[in-house]
Amino acid sequence: MARVTASAYTSHVPAIGAALDHGRTHEPYWQKVFGGYEFSKRWLRDNPPDVVFLVYNDHANAFSLEIIPTFAIGTAAEFAIADEGWGPRPVPKVIGHPELAAHIAQAVIQEDFDLTIVNRMDVDHGLTVPLSLLCGQPQAWPCRVIPFAVNVVQYPVPSGRRCFQLGQAIRRAVESYDEPLKVQIWGTGGMSHQLQGPRAGLINREWDNRFLDRLIADPAGLAQVPHIEYVREAGSEGIELVMWLIARGAMADVAGGPPPRVAHRFYHVPASNTAVGHLILENAN
Fold first, then answer.
1. What is the C-alpha separation between 65 and 70, in angstroms, rounded?
2. Closest by Cα among 248, 251, 238, 246 to 208
3. What is the structure's pLDDT at 65?
């Protein structure tokens, strides 16, 4: 059977992609950011997944404000890179896993989670920046990827509790797939940031690091945090962090297994006008 081997969590700041694409990673400003991912690139080479189930939010590229699914799973064989206004990022197209994606959709919908099934969509920096951070700049991505888009742009957005429960359903779906695949679940977005209004540029280091502490040690309690706390403490875009709870819900300890091992933890301010957070958790063998 397939199994979830690890989860990874990272910000997906668009300026990180621009720095990579324009060869600016060795500039003093960016060195500290990319230095936090050197371990992660080695770790991924040493722990290669067959499939990454990548939780992210679309930034009005695959979905406009006319149609906004709460949860959307990409079931296509491949996904083109979105043109976000300055041309697509110069990265490889994303190769999907239609069979596993369809299986997850079937299983999760039968557990009463309403997913939108997307057979064609372009993927933007929300998905490609995390891949670049952990995979580098290859000619082809080293594994298949199932894009899973979550609406954290237009209210109402899903609660942390719902996302945590969904992660548990996704783990059960993966474990019922009859092929010995190693699957990683990635949660992306955040950490604290606000892009507009009087609080534009807000960064809350203390809250961010407390979130990381609780994500590791108290995910069920963290899942109860209401939307208003994310907005008040982490800024309007800090709500993206509920997507990390999907990945955390898929870990074995949530279903009674042993606690995960913290393989890597990183936090840095600033990258553009946001805080960057990153975490890798491994399931016990």
1. 12
2. 238
3. 87
pLDDT tens column, 260-273 = 999 999 999 999 98
Taking only the tens place, the pLDDT of each residue in 208-226 is: 999 999 999 999 999 999 9
Instruction: Reply yes or no on whether 125 is catalytic.
Output: yes
Among 125, 227, 264, 278, the one annotated catalytic: 125
Domain positions in the chain are 3-282
| Phi then psi dihedrals of residue 252, to 5 deg | -65, -35
Long-range own/partner contacts, residues 134-139 (CB < 8 A, 24 or more apart):
134/8, 134/10, 134/37, 134/40, 134/41, 134/44, 135/41, 135/44, 136/41, 137/20, 137/91, 138/92, 139/92
Candidates 193, 264, 268, 278; catalytic one: 193
Ranges of residues in the chain with a pLDDT under 50 are none
Please confirm, yes or no, whether 227 is among the known catalytic residues.
Answer: no
CATH class of this structure's domain 3-282: alpha beta
